[in-house]
Structure formats: structure tokens, C-alpha cells
Amino acid sequence: MAKKTMTVVKNLDIERYMGRWYEIASFPSFFQPRNGVNTRATYTLNNDGTVHVLNETWSDGKRDYIEGTAYKADPASDEAKLKVKFYVPPFLPIFPVVGDYWVLYIDDDYQYAVIGQPSRKYLWILSRKTQIDEEVYNQLVEKAKEEGYDVSKLHKTPQADPPPESETGPKDTKGIWWIKSLFGK
Hints:
This protein is mostly beta strands. It has one domain: Calycin beta-barrel core domain (Lipocalin, Beta Barrel). Helices cover 13% and strands 37% of the residues. Strands 1-2-3-4-5-6-7-8 form an 8-stranded antiparallel barrel. The longest helix is centred in the last third of the chain and has 13 residues, at 134-146. 29% of the residues are buried.
């Protein structure tokens, strides 16, 4: 059975979308630390209209992070289909890794978002707060299910309240855990 075309948010207000989002749940993948907690993304608008991306996660008390740039895949389109480009530090010469970032759902107040990509192998449920109501969570899961995702693979991400400060703890800048997802493997 052919899966229906994914519905992507139209006319995303990129300025309202900026700021910090906490990962409430995602599809686990081999590259991300199994014990990764407090995973979050912080988006900042650049002067040229692109977005600076900072992804962070903590495992064994250590902060992993990677930075990149997001931009519209097709500037003429009103759909929220973004490309995210990370420059991979551990490899020389430095080369960019590009992945798809499709905003499948966002609520009117820009408090919750569902992010996917065309292969449906990756899914993220994001929130402005570290915890969300079970009812809201279930509604977001239902949205993903409607878009053809196998939501049985969703894994909730533990989030501390209050969240950790970025500057604390030893750093691990390899960022490998995030990169591999972008290949969509």
C-alpha cells in the first residue's frame, strides 16, 4: 500500500519558531547515545535568513553537542521543508552533511512540534517545556501516525526539571551521534 504524501506545515513563522525546543520523544537510532537525556535543540535566526542550529544531549553526565545551519529547501515554496547542514568536525577535510527537516505539525502557539523527514525513519516530538501533558503527547503521536509513521518505535527522552545549563560538565564535541541521522540510513 502506497503511503500518502506527508502533510507539511505551510507558512511557518520562522521567527516564532526560534528559541529552545526540548525533545520529548524520538525514534531511537544506533548513532544516538542509548542513555542520552535532556536532548534539546536551540535555533537562532542568522542575519541572512538561515538558522543557526545547536543540538545538545547529555550521556553519562557529559554534554555532546553539534552545531549547524538550517535553510529552506526551496525558497519559493510555502512549505516548512528545511535542510539542515552540519560541518563534521572529526573528519578532515571538513565536509558538510545535509539532512531533511520537515515540520509536520506545529500548534498555533508554537509550543509543540512534530518533525520528520521523507523516509519516515526519523521522527521527533518537540516542546518548549521539558514536560508535556499525556493528552497533548498522545495527540502529537496521533498526528505522526496519520502521516504514516510507525509510532510504536517512539522512545521518550528523559528530561530533567530544571534542565541542565549548557556550560556545565565536561564536553564531548565529536557530535557523531547526531550526524549519522542525517544520512537517513
